[in-house]
Amino acid sequence: MKASDPxxxxxxxxxxxxxxxxxxxxxxxxxxxxAEGLDLLATIVNGHPAGRIFGVEVKASSxxxxxxxxxxxxxxxxxxxxxxxxxxxxxxxxAMLFDMQTDDGYFVWILAPSIEVRTGSPTLRRxxxxxxxxxxxxxxxxxxxEIDDWYDARSLSGxxxxxxxxxxxx
Length: 170
Description:
The protein is an alpha+beta fold. The protein has three helices and eight strands; from the N terminus they run αβββαββββαβ. The chain has one domain: Trna Endonuclease, Chain: A, domain 1 (3-Layer(aba) Sandwich).
């Protein structure tokens, strides 16, 4: 948020993110209890007893150009803050950026779920530079499918903990 943005924009943006993530009925969202952690913890609701969680950081501005450049690249200072603060989680993490003038949302991966082609091993890939895409129902379905596929690969490979996951730095 810009320093001049009203305090309530952050809360409003979180509500927009929750609405967009839960609209298809496949995701349940809770607000993270940690003050320094993620804004939202989301769980894919598909009958897996262990839960398929992913994290979402939410940012808002009355002028989206302060967060995202015209080409979709997340502004350098914000990108650095997001990757430094959120780049060590053991599960996929994305950010939702909102233009509070229009309620338009943008999604960007911080730790993208990926599956190694040669080995089928699940990895978490840090994107660089961070590129935001406009949030649509199709994009969110794709994001949820990528996370679901990552957890499937993780189950098949027997990888359970953070120590066994690989984080690739690009």
